[in-house]
Amino acid sequence: IEQYIKNIGPSKSTISFSIQNDVDSLFEVDAIRLELTILIDNIISNSRKARATKLFTHIKLINPEKIRISFQDNGRGISKKLPDIESIFEMGITTTNGSGLGLFQAKKIVERLGGTIEAIPLEQGLEIRVEIENET
Predict the structure, then answer these.
(1) Where do runs of H (alpha helix) occur along 1-136?
(2) DSSP code at position 74
(3) Mean pLDDT of successive 10-residue segments in the chain (136 residues)?
(4) Quick check: helix, strand or coil at residue 92?
(5) Is the dihedral of CA 124, 61, 110, 106 positive or negative?
(6) Spatial distance between the Cα atoms of 22 and 91, rounded to a whole number of angstroms
(7) Nearest to 7 by CA among 40, 29, 51, 45
(8) How does DSSP classify residue 52?
(9) Which end of the chain is more exposed for a tag (fewer CB within 10 A), N or C?
């Protein structure tokens, strides 16, 4: 995840990326690499659409069996047009010129991995928090 964001993320966006990786041991997840890249690309795309200029990614272990990947941007945050914050993960829900499929797809990928994804409003911007259990 860190390598993809560092090497590919900046080429796909005008957003400034920063990463803090606090995981110093092997953490295995049974995932298809393409799905992880789709997950990250969808989050980057939504940050870009929210006019974010910065995206901070924090990777850390919650406990030996669970990892948290937090994506925090400084964009416009959650639109007041949405019925509730969790609706951003529903199919077809969008407040931009997008299809409303990106975060829906991101949620499906995380759920296939046995994890959770949530949106957390920030003072300026939005945090998308992904938590996944270890494969062991």
Answers:
(1) 2-7, 33-49, 102-112
(2) -
(3) 81 83 83 90 90 95 92 90 84 69 92 94 95 80
(4) coil
(5) positive
(6) 33
(7) 40
(8) -
(9) C
